Amino acid sequence: MVLLTTARERSHPSLPSDPPDRSPQSVTAPARRPTCGVRALLSVRSLAGRVLLVELLIVVLLVGAGVAALVMQARSSTENDARRLTRGVAESFAHAPGLVQALDSPDPSAVLQPQAEAVRKATGVDSVIVISAGFVQLTSPRPSYVGRPYEVPPDVMRNVVPQLYAGRTVTFDLQEPKPRYHSIATAVPVFGPDGTPKGVVASNITLGRVDSVVGAQLPVLLGSAAGAVALAAVATALARRRLLRQTRGLGPGELARMYEHHDAVLHAVREGVLIVGEDGRVMLANDEARRLLDLPADAERRPPAELGLDPETAALLSSTEEVTDGIHQAGDRLLAVNKRPTAPFGGLPGSVVTLRDSTELHDLTHRVEEAGRRSRLLYEAGLRIGGTLDMTRTCEELAEVALSGRFADTVAVDLAETVTRGEDPVPGDRRLRRTALRGSAGDPAPTGVGQALTAADPSPQALGLDGGRAVLAGPDTAGDRPHTVITAPLRAGGGVLGLVEFRRAPGSTPFEPDDLPLAEELAARAAVSVDNARRFTREHGTAAALQRSLLPRTIPEPTALDVAHRYLPASAGIGGDWFDLIPLPGLRTALVVGDVVGHGINAAVAMGRLRTAIRTYASLDLPPDEVLGRLDELVTQTDEECGGFAITGSTCAYAVYDPASGVCTLARAGHLGPALVHPDGTVEYPDAALAPPLGVGGHPFETTELKLAEGSRLVLFTDGLVETREHDLDHGLERLRTALADDGRRTPDETCDAVIRALRTPHPADDVALLIARTGRLAPDQVAEWEVPMDPSAVAPVRNACARRLADWGLDDLGFTTELILSELITNAIRYGTAPVRVRLLRDTSLVCEVSDGSSTAPHLRWAATTDEGGRGIFLVAQLAHRWGTRYTDQGKVIWCEQPIESPA
Question: pTM, whole model, 2 decimals?
């Protein structure tokens, strides 16, 4: 089996010649005067002209490299397209129906030559060739080649033919020296039904056609490159013109001389000048600044903190705040400081600081100290207040800052009653609640933390609430120890959130009117943080209340299951973890644990939707894999409709436990598998089928059946329990195994407590849902089963047997109703269903009657007309039973009905 191709001449597109070089004309511009015109633009004497030449050279090099890269990319892309086209044509023709029969026919060329030519013309390849197993060319674009033997080139015989015998399709470069021919070809082997080689189908495209495509694109690329160079030249010329104006036509030497003159002037003045860069390092310090601050000789390019300055001076130089005529003490000198940013005045980002020695102004010492103290106090307030989103802690931080800064001896913070609940402040409402209190033990405030109070007229509290400004009160003579008090409102968002009282004890310096602005500033900074905490408290409370309403508050008492559960919210907010326990027909129970992606109120809402949906699907009595399949479709549809908060990637584990058989059927959608604690206390993680998370799609859900011994504990949980920032998943699963291992005597509730104690972290980043169920079994005397022959006469014996069993169970009061229900269900199964027909009675807190058959057709409840002879059976069942329904199994269907059993008085 060999490959035959048709030789073609390779074409070489011609390339356009390079554009001629152009050199800028040089002119001489007068010094220190801006120059213009063509000669000025092309001048190379100035700094701007030299920059122009360098930029043009860089642009030409970059454009040339880009054109070369585009040409190479175009050629590579065209060759790849040719490989795909030849492969597609060869494989399509080789796999076409009737090809093997045509090869076995007496005259294969008569059948295949027209077809090959039609395919070649339709697809645009250069040739479609069929070669027989005897090295005979059966088709060719040149009819004279048909029927000729083909001499295989050595490289094809060595590299391609073995792969064809192995049954592989081969795409390769074919080169033949005589005649000179280079193409891209694909060969596909053809085998008979018995695996006998029948031939090969080959398709090729010459590289001459590939080069012609690239050549057709080359003028466009060169034209674009020329346009880019021209555009860059224009842009560079305009930039040079601007640079020429900014440098005023000066050359490098003239600029150097000007800089030296400015530097000499800067260092000659008797005022300290420092320039601090954007990165906080000193860029320049003149001689006077070095003298005033005692700077080292290598002060440039070093941050102020490394220059041996006192912390206050270093902080002043490093900050970005503007200073106007500020008084700063540096060592034994008093300095008048001005600080301004340099960027707005045409300089680089940074600031310039000027310093004047004002040591002789001793009368300003007290003012300097007071201003420094207040600045430090405000700076400390900015750092320490508002570190958390807790209103109480924020108020305590305000009090602590005022005490540590010696602004007051006692600080009390009172918030509006509505604000403490996270609500907006109500204008005119004077009900307050003391939230924070700090001070010396010997100077307590009249009201303790947590107590309610009302601001009455004309108290300073009422004036502060109504006027929105700080109020300075005189000595408080109502108490045994008089105080001087400043009452400042906590204003934020146009409302008053509360009040802060600054008190000074007797013997301390009384407050002055100049202290009111500082008190208002402290209160304003704290008010912003309190308002943020209030909003967070409101939103968090709303989301938490929503989540609590969506999670099950109480769980039903399932049959043969002892269940305990825990839910632990994350410290940073609510999440989307959830659990549920759903009673199912036949005394079965569904155990569900899920995890919605994300946090916050959106995750809580999504969790509620998924929990409601899975309860709806469970009520249809669908298998676990179908429940998750429908839930997966719901997640996909929800994300497509909402387009905002996506819940794709959420996980869920759905398990159904049957106490009659002791079998647990489990399906998972991206969720962690359960842990199983055997009756002897050993723990294992059973291998349960896993599907992708909800909303991903593309993979069917599968179920796994676990045969659970009586007394086993099934543990379902979310990843927040075992995966934390400190420990990976494997480590967490091993810790959970250790916490679950015991002697088998612990109750599920005790097991939950042990797991939480062992695995809970102080500040969990994710919420946790945990569900533990200890399994039991129905006793043999609680289950009764009969197999019913497919004969209407068999209804009565089975019905009588059921009546006797009900009498044995002490359920004679349900006997008549049950006989009617079973008569209708068994008769319908015999008449409309298929064998085998079985009847099962289950007794627990209710009586469950089940009739199963091999048919998948389900009965429907309908209203029978007066003249109808039938159609009333299911209606009768629905009226007599408390609940009824149909579920489908692998063997058919089960029609069930449930009747409550009254507890004896």
Answer: 0.51
